[in-house]
Amino acid sequence: MSRIFEVTDKVRTHDPRADIDMINRAYVFAANAHANQKRSSGEPYMGHPVAVANILASLRLDDKSIVTGLLHDTVEDTAVTLEDIERRFGSEVAYLVDGVTKIGQIRFVSSEHKQAENFRKMILATAKDLRVLLVKLADRLHNMRTLGFLPDRKRQLIARETMELYAPLAHRLGIHWLTQELEDLSFSHLEPEAYFELSTKLADHLDSLNRTRERLEAIMQEAVNRMGCRARVQGRMKHMYSLFLKMQRKQVDFDDIYDLVAFRVIVDDTPACYQTLGIIHSMYRPVPGRFKDYIALPKPNGYQSLHTSIIGPDNFRLEVQIRTEAMHHYAEDGVAAHWLYKSDGLDARDEKNFQWLKQLTELLQESDQPGEFLENVRLDLFVKEVYVFSRDGDLFALPRGALPLDFAYAVHTDIGHHCLGVRINGQPADFTTRLRNGDQIEVITTPEQTPSRHWEQHVRTPRARQAIRQWFRREERDASVRVGDEIMLEVFGSESKVSKEALRALHCADIDELRTRLGRGEIPLDQLMAASKRNAPRRLHLTGTEQGLIRPAKCCLPLPGDKVLGRFEHGKGILVHHQECAVAAAEEGEAWMGVDWRPEEGKLYRTSLEIKTLNRRGMLASVSGAIAELGASIDDLRIHQLAGDMTTLNVLIEVKDRVHMAKLMRGLRAVADVVRVRRNIQLRTSENISQRIGRSLRTLIGSRKDDDEKNREKE
Ligand code: MN
């Protein structure tokens, strides 16, 4: 069992300026907090935090990391609060302890490979500070070393989590021994039989393996030296889990694995690599077919080395890798890169992040002043992502800033389309709530719910935005088919009367295409009329109820019953202008159509009136009184004092239709001192109409000027 003085001794050795007093205080504080607690082994609980601190000291971490190691379980398992820790040990330690506690609360729930990668990222995102992650890894290592005392099911869970999350993280950090120990420990719990078999066999061979390794190291070193090259020869036993993987991958038995010990010879330059190979092959017989020249033909990830297998002393097969120092460095990074290639969904940015981490850890292990070095090193790695869970515990990675609808659409497009609301961690939340790491989100759906236009403001992911736009495009297509159908029926009378010649003349393959293109306003109306061979111009009979198909233009505010010009606006239905509207007249184009716009029962339409009156007291009251009396309501009213004693009132009112409006205008004209009442539509000359709108329109709607004049008269 580790003792606190072992820890402080280690810390003092590598960092003379470390705050040993703080470490001792943390020890006493944690020992008090855990005073009556025991581990599953029956030992006092305090053995665990001290062991964790000891591992951290071996990693040569700074004093605050060591203190965090001692305190890491206090907030989770005792009455101690973060505030207590902050008061005694400062905000930095409190921040680190909080980080370790939060990682501890992440529950690994999926066995899918892809999900494991998301969990790893989530841990990194939660850690925020490199030290948090290192403390967590040390904690996990000690727990794995003492896992045997837990019930079987729990052991399996923790071992699997270690294998899938923590060992890969240690690997990415470049802490090789930690990776291997975590893997071997997990392996022993996950595959106890295979582990036992393998360890028994290894134990049988261990002495001879070690002797072989030492002897070969010496022989090779000497041979290479004799040649006049500088070289480093490293022999290493492969760790159990990698042997196990190899046996599985190659479907071979232990006895057929010839690279239980692997050698690496690192030399100065490329020619020396081939020279060294020559020396080794002259000493030992190469295994045919095992030589690989990855220097001449690098692996796709850039890895370079010479690989060979030889039959060494005592007929022992060995794998040897020969490379330069530069290749060696590249190989180290390349391993990470290779690993990254295999895990889906990682981009180059992630890879760079891990390289940075790796370099950082290397620096850390070589640095004399780790304390200074580690100060405020943040793991700003995956700040661009947020990790959330579905109700079923599936993990989703979304961009940071993602909102509930992004999640709904990430689950499934239909879940998004019919999303009525969400509950986050059991609480109802609205669409503007930013998702946070670890949130559990339940989407409430109903078939009646469909996307609305403002949803686009409540999504951050391209996927959700595209899905919403797609929905509306489909809606528009439906709307244009509906409009097109109406136009077609109006012009041709019935579907069966659309002749093949007509289709050909309009360049449509079939009726459906005709419908769609008519609805989109793609077919000029004069062409349509010509193709229909009809002389009698007709108007379209559309009511406002057509799914909100008709929208009055804001410039002229036409009313149902007015002579209106309609134009299909992509995705918005038909926009109608008053026939006299100057704005409409200014718009070029052939796609205007005459529309017989009928009022919708019970609906009020907004329009604008200009009332000119004599300027006298009580005038406004009489006018608004008259408007109310006639069943219309005032939305807005502006007064313009004119020169002399005249006043102009601009009134926005709501009426049922044109007939209602006419009645209202008559009523207003009857009010004393009202001089003139008229619709607020900019008039234009009849020349303009013919010039700008074009022949086709006149053909369709009929330029029945006389009627129009009469109508205006009535107003
Ligand atoms: Mn712990």
How do the strands and helices of this protein lay out in sequence?
Elements: H1 4-14, H2 20-33, H3 47-58, H4 63-71, H5 74-77, H6 82-105, H7 113-127, H8 130-145, H9 152-172, H10 176-190, H11 192-226, E1 231-237, H12 240-250, E2 261-267, H13 270-283, E3 285-286, E4 292-293, E5 306-311, E6 317-324, H14 325-342, H15 348-366, H16 370-374, E7 385-390, E8 395-399, H17 404-411, H18 413-417, E9 419-424, E10 427-429, E11 440-445, H19 462-492, H20 500-505, H21 511-519, H22 525-532, E12 540-543, E13 550-552, E14 564-569, E15 573-578, H23 582-586, E16 593-598, E17 605-614, H24 619-629, E18 633-641, E19 646-655, H25 658-669, E20 674-679, H26 686-693, H27 695-701, H28 705-714
Parallel strand pairs: 2-6, 7-11, 12-16, 13-15
Antiparallel strand pairs: 1-2, 3-5, 4-5, 5-6, 7-8, 9-10, 9-11, 14-15, 14-16, 17-19, 17-20, 18-19
Give a short synopsis of this structure.
This protein is of the alpha+beta class and 715 residues long. Helix content is 51%, strand content 17%.
Molecular structure report:
With 715 residues, the protein is α+β, with helices and mostly antiparallel strands. Strands 1, 2, 3, 4, 5 and 6 form a 6-stranded mixed β-sheet that branches. Strands 8-7-11-9-10 form a 5-stranded mixed β-sheet. Strands 12-16-14-15-13 form a 5-stranded mixed β-sheet. Helix 4 crosses helix 8 and helix 14 crosses helix 15. The radius of gyration is 41 Å and the shape is elongated. The C terminus is likely disordered. The chain binds manganese (II) ion. Manganese (II) ion binds next to loops.
